[in-house]
Amino acid sequence: QVQLQESGPGLVKPSETLSLTCTVSGGSISSYYWSWIRQPPGKGLEWIGYIYYSGSTNYNPSLKSRVTISVDTSKNQFSLKLSSVTAADTAVYYCARGVRGVIPYYYYYMDVWGKGTTVTVSS
Amino acid sequence: SYELTQPPSVSVSPGQTARITCSGDALPKQYAYWYQQKPGQAPVLVIYKDSERPSGIPERFSGSSSGTTVTLTISGVQAEDEADYYCQSADSSGTYLHVVFGGGTKLTVL
Fold this sequence. Notes:
The complex is a heterodimer of chains A (123) and B (110). Helices cover 0% and strands 54% of the residues of chain A. With 123 residues, chain A is an all-beta fold. The model of chain A has no long low-confidence stretch (mean pLDDT 96). Chain A has strands at 3-7, 11-12, 18-25, 33-39, 46-52, 57-59, 67-72, 77-82, 91-101, 107-113, 117-121. In chain A, strands 2, 4, 5, 6, 9, 10 and 11 form a seven-stranded mixed β-sheet that branches. A four-stranded antiparallel β-sheet of chain A has the order 1-3-8-7, with no helix packed on it. Chain A is built from no helices and eleven strands. In chain A, a hairpin with a 4-residue loop joins β5 (46-52) and β6 (57-59). Chain B is mainly β and 110 residues long. Chain B is 0% helix and 45% strand. Chain B contains no helices and nine strands. In chain B, strands 1, 3, 4, 7, 8 and 9 form a six-stranded mixed β-sheet that branches. Chain B has a three-stranded antiparallel β-sheet with strand order 2-6-5, with no helix packed on it. In chain B, β3 and β4 (44-47) form a beta hairpin. Chain B starts with 8 loop residues before the first strand and ends with a strand. In chain B, 39% of the residues are buried. The mean pLDDT of chain B is 95. The chains are: A mainly beta (123), B mainly beta (110). Chains A and B meet through β5, β9 and β10 of A and β7 and β8 of B.
C-alpha cells in the first residue's frame, strides 16, 4: 500500500525558508492530490495546501502569500516551501494523499498520511 | 472564514457509547470526515463522506449527519480508542475549495 515519508531540516532560522519533501512509495503520484498539513505543539491540525500531480495548486488563504507546493513526478515526490518563517511556524508537518471529488458537491479529504516531521524555528 | 466547532473533551467508560459532535454552517452542503490521532502519531481517517468507514476501521466507529451537525459515534468504547478526534470538511463558498479542521476533541476512556 502507498506510504508517505517527510524529510527536511528539523531546525530553521527565523526569516528563512522552510523546505520539506514528501516521498511517495508503493504507488504512483499520478492521478491523486497531495497535501501538506501542520500541527503546532499541543494544538490542532491546520491545512496548508494541496497540489494535483499535474501541478495545479490550492493554498490556505492565511498562508498563501508564503507557501509554494510543487511536484516532481519523475521522483514520486512533492515539496513544501514556506518563506519568512517565525516561531509560530514551529510544528509537526505532515504530508498526505488527498481525494477530491465534485459530486454531489466539491469535496476533499486525506486518506493516507505520513508519520510527520518536526520543524522548529529558532535562531 | 468557515469554522467547525467540536467540544474540547468527551469522557466515557469502557463498553459505553461515545458521541463526538462537530457543527458548521456549511455541513448540510458538504461532507464531513473524521480523523483519530493518538499521542505522537499521525492522524488516521476513520470516517469519510459523513458515514463511510475505510477498510480496516472497526465497525464500532460510525458517522451520521443532521443539519449543521455531524456526529462520530464509537460503540462499545475500548481503552485503545482514547485519542484526539478531528472533524474536517471543506469550504467551497469562494473560488477555491479550502480544507477546514475542527479544533479537536480529546476522548478519555475512564
